[in-house]
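Data availability (excerpt). The following record was deposited with the supplementary files.
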Amino acid sequence: MRVLAIDSSGLVATVAIVEEAGSEEKTIAEYTTNFKKTHSQTLLPMLDEIVKMTEIDLGTIDAIAISGGPGSFTGLRIGSATAKGLGLALGKPLIHVPTVDGLAYNICYTDQIVCPIMDARRNQVYTGIYKFEDEKMVVLEEQMAVSIEELAEKLCKYEDNGVIFLGDGVPVHRERLETELMSGRKISFAPAHMNCQRAATIGTLGILYLKEGKTETAAEHKPDYLRVSQAERERAEREQRNA
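Predicted structure:
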């Protein structure tokens, strides 16, 4: 079983090929960039490079796993368009992996609660709340867009066995979480190499979902934005003022 995985939901662009042979999973190739270029400049060249390096025929993949949101509106559209185009061209199904689920899966098998936070601006984060039981990820709170204060309130309802935060929202909200919102509770922050989106993680989850039959056609795939775009918000505000 072989899956091509794509994630362009955040600041990082990342592509991977992951396969499972028997009971063993293996990342064949992964290419990640976090630099001053747009995903439209990097995503397809990265994909082309790993195909050349591995000499894998994309016709041999079983499905395309795509980080389906939430995240950057532009980034999600680029990733979605790339996955849909490949799916149509190759005649392969897509696997929609929630972005926040993918981030949480970077930190497997901990006994602490895992809480990814992606900066959604306006004091909000894209987030979810997870734990691991018997080597399986359990979704305690599905991905959502909430204020950082509301998230802290939700986390305080769970037993104090510790919370690990990760994601690009950490630099934005770390100080408040440490000194105010989660003061007195056991919290920690993921190291840099586990703190960003990884296509290999999306691919690994993609294989699990593929086994469960959680696929969609390229035509069916739509990103999960969770919020309206800034342009749509500004238009609604203008219309409200002019009403």
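Summary of structural features: DSSP finds seven helices and ten strands in the chain.
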